Amino acid sequence: MRLLFGIILAATLAQAAKTLDVYFVDVEGGQATLIVTPSKESLLVDAGWPGFNGRDASRIQAAAKAAGVKQIDYLMLTHYHTDHAGGVSQLLEKMPVKTFVDHGPNRETGKSAGELSAAWDKAVATGKHLVVKPGDKIPLKGVDVQVVTADGAGITSPINGGGAANSFCGGKTFPEDKSENARSTGILITYGKFRMLDIGDLTSQKELDLVCPNNRLGKVDLYLTTHHGTNTSNAKEIVDAISPRVAIMNNGAKKGGSAESWQTIKSSPGLEDLWQLHFAVAGGKDSNVADSFIANIDEACEGKYIKASAMSDGSFTVVNSRNKYQKSYAAK
Known about the structure:
332 residues; alpha/beta; Metallo-beta-lactamase, Chain A; nine-stranded mixed sheet; 8 helices; 18 strands; globular
């Protein structure tokens, strides 16, 4: 009987210890976020830049190796800009991708947009293709991945306990953005009680459409700052409404990480910590967090990543791969 109890206890503890792991890969001001489920399924959000001798593809591959995955089950493109979609061809030279996810055709035109679309379409032809709209889900086992924005539209019904009037809304509006940024595919990831929001490069008016006059997103534990922390995104109305406990800024040394957005996020009610992929040169010491929370201090860097590991009870740990500094956040 004692042996049986020990076996059951060990199995229960093993199940409880499974984590959702998120690698915020440094692609120097673009995006490549690798999400690995407890069952080792993988979702990569964006593929970084092209060029640089395959730099970004190599960094994604290194994160995948650290995560113990050999293929990308789903590659989701937030939008058709070079710092998000440009690296897909080089990625495929290093790792297989099973399913490609996007919001549909590129809405921008011109030579560079056409070349980017053609490269993406060529990549998509090597696997399965999934076009998503708000309310759809990306079918990962054991984790709920809900699309909240796509192709300029957003969810119309509350999720994640949302729906309450947003006291941070004040009737402010922002200029219309006709670029692909405003068409970013955004997702809310749920693992048990843990919540993470990634809405790509969505710009401020589209952010307001999600949370004003009512916050349809609810609150989250972890927020990937929108648009690399630029001040055309990260509107106070959404940042304060979702009230993240922790924010990760995927900025570059000289891209994103604006002082205005940095202050908005740092002053958000309930925020415990902000972590950055890079020291933002323009921000100086006043608009950057302590070095221990920054993955890459120098402009010419080694491309260190930040990793978050979440338990189903809502607790999570964030680790800086540069200095191994880590901090745990208890379940609430």
